[in-house]
Amino acid sequence: MLLIVTSVCSPPEIDFGRIEMNKQKEYLENDRIQYNCHPGYDLEGSDWITCKKEGWIPPPKCFAPCILTKQQLDDRNLLLNDGQRHSEWIRNGHTIEFTCRKGYSIVSPSVRKCVDGNLTLPSCNSSVICPAPRIENGSFFPLWMSYNIEDIIYTTCKPGYMLESHKNSSKCTKGGWLPNPKCVRKQCDFPHIENGALSWSNIYYSDVSFPKKVGQTIGFKCNHGFLPRNKKHWDRIKCTNFGWDPEPQCYKQCIPPKHLPHGRVTYNYGNTFIDGDEISFNCDMGYYPEHHLPIATCRNNDWFPTLNCVSTDVTLASSGNVTYPKPLRVIHL
């Protein structure tokens, strides 16, 4: 009996590849060949394939790389993850990450995979979402028509106004400006008064009582030995567009001398004196103010210059065997 053997497989047509071993015009069942892919292409599975009745098993396959051009990046406002813009070659199965140019935000996912020469690129949408703010009683910089995410502006309020958020910088976010750049009438914070204090209620409830609004008033008192500008036990201050008016201060008190040798101090009974106040005095006949002017100023609980009256009499000064008259000091008042 004559056994006729017929060929089963023709040489495989391998896109982007070639047969490396056992190259023939035809193949019988169970014949094997080895193939390889062109440089830059990746084969799938084993590089050996077998001839079967249904064909070559497994089917030979060379996967193509992906080519990314600079023009493709420009057309979609894309950048590579390193922030650069250049053509790139990506092997099959490998990934590449993208970002967008300033003023655009990427449509996720930002990481894309090369699949047999096909690379789906992400989109970049315009991220201009913050218009230039309108700030009453204030101004800001830099001045642009619109702003992108992460852009920052700096706000300054007119005199008498303050930023509601107490922060002079605002950032453009997906939800708008954060914090909102808004100027409101300046309020008055809790005043810290050296040598004085507010009323007990204002101190105890300071966390809810302050800041005060423009137009509100509060009272304060000074410690022993100090007086406010009105020279009374209590004084009141008012919150204005420019802060507290008057500025709450406690001044040291000066006591006028009860007795001035060879002179007298002139002031009304009951008068009180604080830093900066002046007092006058007169010297008796034959005496004059030691520091020429009959005026002294209250400074830090004392009088400057010292209140003192000195004699204008002629005295003799001894010098050896000769005596000289001490010269007169003439004071022009």
TrEMBL record:
Keywords, alphabetical: Disulfide bond, Signal, Sushi
Record's keyword annotation contains Signal: yes
Coiled coil location: none
Entry-linked PROSITE patterns: SUSHI
Presence of keyword Phosphoprotein: no
Pfam families cross-referenced by the UniProt entry: Sushi
Residue span, Sushi domain: 7-64, 128-185, 252-311
Xref: InterPro entries: ComplSys_Reg/VirEntry_Med (IPR051503), Sushi/SCR/CCP_sf (IPR035976), Sushi_SCR_CCP_dom (IPR000436)
PANTHER family in UniProt: COMPLEMENT FACTOR H, COMPLEMENT FACTOR H-RELATED
Name this polypeptide is given: Complement factor H-related protein 3-like isoform X4
Organism field: Notechis scutatus
UniProt lineage: Eukaryota, Metazoa, Chordata, Craniata, Vertebrata
